[in-house]
TrEMBL record:
Biological function: Virulence factor required for growth in low Mg(2+) medium and for intramacrophage survival. May be involved in regulating membrane potential by activating Na(+)/K(+)-ATPase.
Similarity section: Belongs to the MgtC/SapB family.
Pfam families the record matches: MgtC, MgtC_SapB_C
Location within or outside the cell: Cell inner membrane; Cell membrane
Primary localization: membrane
Protein name, as recorded: Protein MgtC
UniProt cross-references to PANTHER family, sorted A to Z: PROTEIN MGTC
Keyword Cell membrane found: yes
Length: 240
């Protein structure tokens, strides 16, 4: 049997040590996420860390450091796809970015463990847990600061309610008016309003930037005076 010919006790225990380090450190990261009731909790972070450690350790034994470097590159991109699965977009808001970043960090911990860099794996774990716990009070303090549109970069949208017959003309005018006010438009959508007859809503999403509320108010007032416009307004989202 080839297994008996290639089995080396030292290499086997080296692999066990790498996997054990990844398991324990991934468990520490995942326990904090589980306590916060996040989508990716204890088991997910452990599996990501152990899986990354296993791939890197395998490459180390088969092709040495050069092979490990190539596998780490694939681990980084592969975890990117896994992280994308926990990111959810709800309207203008995006959720799950911190969870995805934590999974990415768990993979980094596992990669360090698989490359026999246990001390570095511990250091990365400490920083990841610190980022998810010690920075929380600072985040909450910043979030309690009153929002100022003139200094904050966010996503803004301008909405027009009008008849469908004038939608195309008003859409072009909306873009031109915002461009004149030096607020570039990233996207414009026309949405049919249910239970409102032939009414539509034109939504222009601005390029993320800081705005002057008074300037946008002037634009809105001008748009409301246009023939065919029933209502105009603007809103902001800071979750992107």
């Amino acid at each position: 049997m080839r297994f008996l010919a290639t089995f080396q006790t030292t290499d086997f225990f080296d692999t066990l040590f790498s996997l054990a380090v990844a398991f324990v450190l991934g468990m520490l990261i995942g326990a904090e996420r589980q306590y916060r009731t996040r989508a990716a909790g204890l088991r997910t972070n452990v599996l990501v860390a152990v899986g990354a450690a296993a791939f890197v350790d395998l490459a180390m034994h088969l092709a040495g450091a050069d092979g490990a470097v190539r596998v780490i590159a694939y681990v980084v991109s592969g975890i990117g796809f896994l992280g994308a699965g926990v990111i959810m977009k709800e309207g203008m808001n995006v959720r799950g970015l911190n969870t995805a970043a934590t999974l990415w960090s768990s993979a980094a911990v596992g990669a360090c463990a698989g490359a026999d860099m246990a001390a570095q794996a511990v250091a990365v774990t400490v920083f990841v847990i610190a980022g998810n716990t010690l920075l929380r009070p600072l985040v909450n303090a910043i979030n309690r600061i009153p929002f100022d549109e003139r200094t904050s970069e966010a996503t803004y949208s301008v909405r027009l309610t009008a008849g469908s017959a004038a939608a195309d003309k008003l859409r072009d005018h909306l873009e031109e008016r915002l461009e004149q006010a030096n607020y570039p438009v990233a996207d414009v959508e026309v949405e049919t309003l249910e239970h409102a007859g032939d009414k539509v809503e034109i939504v222009a999403t601005l390029v993320s930037t800081a705005v002057e509320p008074d300037e946008l108010d002037i634009v809105i007032a001008d748009l409301e005076r246009r023939p065919g416009v029933d209502h105009a307004s603007w809103e902001t989202s800071t979750k992107d």
